[in-house]
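#struct-queue
[09:14] JT: dropping the first one here, sequence first, then the structure tokens:
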Amino acid sequence: MKVLLATGKPFAMQAVEGIQNIIEAAGHTFVKLESYAGKSQLLEAVKDANAIIIRSDVIDREVMEAAPNLKVVVRAGAGYDNVDLDVATSRDICVMNTPGQNAIAVAELVLGMLIYMQRNQFDGSVGREISARRLGLYAFGNVAKMVAKIARGFSMTVNAYSPTLSHDDLRKEGEYGVVTVYSNKELFEKSDFVSLHMPLLPETRNCVNYDLLSLMPRDGVLINTARKELVVEEDLLRIMEERPCFQFITDVMPVRHEEFLSRFPKRYFSTPKKTGAQTNEANINAGLAAASQIVAFFQNGDEQFRVNNKS
């Protein structure tokens, strides 16, 4: 089988070498397309591919139609909204992700950005500590669990609400030391900081709006390392205008980035590009997991991390 590594944003060299070793040791052919200039290069590369490993690369109908032999796509990371799942299902293509492999990297970024902003971007002025304050986790997957572990080390109170986990399931997560809350409204009411960790789905798009944000303290902080489409940007701008101490921190640059930056330069921070998973360790973990999943798929039909329906 031919396995294509197609990454516009390249993996660390050690990760690429590890992926290649896993693929070739299983008897498959490994091909690499990194930092490609345009979609035409990707369309050419997929023509005879049986499997593809990607990061944030878009795999849409055009790409899948250009790959008649394609059987499996693995997104090295948690989010997979860059793959058209309906088209994949209609073409009998299995789509998988690698949940948890980037969790530590993203979790560390959450706390790092929070400290940076609470200390006024290290400009020498008097800032605030995060110790003993309340952190709310909106959704409680792998990244949120790691955030909870780290935050407990700062003696923070960690509240957690998940629309997909039952309250009993949340209460069972005792090792993370979280306080279960029973609605998104309660989460925003009881948290000084709210960190978003849900995937982008029809039901989560624009889920963070004025009504929720207005429940937070006047000096609250919204942190987004998930997807920009979760937040109603107009509502967030309104809250920040009304509340001179409210902060917004994000690893997914909003559409109205320039407006946030010009109006609230000391209360807004966005990474230049999504960087949560940009550590050598996360690169290696996610890349090796993706390669191993492809090998298992071809060896015995393993679809443990499948995210689309079967045709």
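[09:21] JT: and here's the second one, same format:
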Amino acid sequence: MADNDFPKPRLRVYLIRHGEVEFAEERRLNGHKDVRLSETGEAEMLEVAEALSHRAITAIYSSDLYRCKRGAEHLAEKTGLKVNLVPAIREIDFGEVEGLGWKEALEKMGGAPARMINWVDNRFPGGENLLEFRERVIPAYRKIIEQSSGEIAMFAHGGTNRMVLCEELGIDLKNFFTLDQGYACVNIIEYFTVGFKMIRLVNGHINCVPALGEI
């Protein structure tokens, strides 16, 4: 079979992490806290929107938190598409330690480092663990991809993106943090009518996108 005979995907998902947030250097657990983008983060989202505006985007989805919604709005302005807000793809709920830095959160949780790296067996006080997070994110993601075709953009969070990638790659949630998700990174997942899927890019830069062929 020649390369040009390979079946085209029915759906290509650009799964994007929001840009850098204010006070990013403090490494805070923002979770559902509605923080703003830094000046760098704003520029990153403009760059992403500009690159994706040259693709045949058919729909835009976003977490309803500002740091994701901002990038989605930039793309909407360039394409004329509306932004579909999906609260279910918000970041993990950090509960009582939301907004704290890692060191402060660790102290509040009793100083046990295992509780800060094993989010499967441990729940953030007043928040979620990874199993509960999965039950929220994955059904919402499945609904989106089942009703979509062509090329769609989804602006989400580091945790949300990791959850989707773990699901699609079959990675155990105890290895959740083996997947890096930098600010404004792009992941590309393609879905085919025969049930096959292909991960085209993980934690990549937006300038990798124009090299892709049309669906």
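[09:30] RK: nice, looked through the second one.
[09:31] RK: Strands lie at 11-17, 57-62, 83-85, 150-156, 186-191, 197-204.
[09:31] JT: good to know. Residues 7-93+129-211 form a domain with the Rossmann fold fold (CATH 3.40.50.1240).
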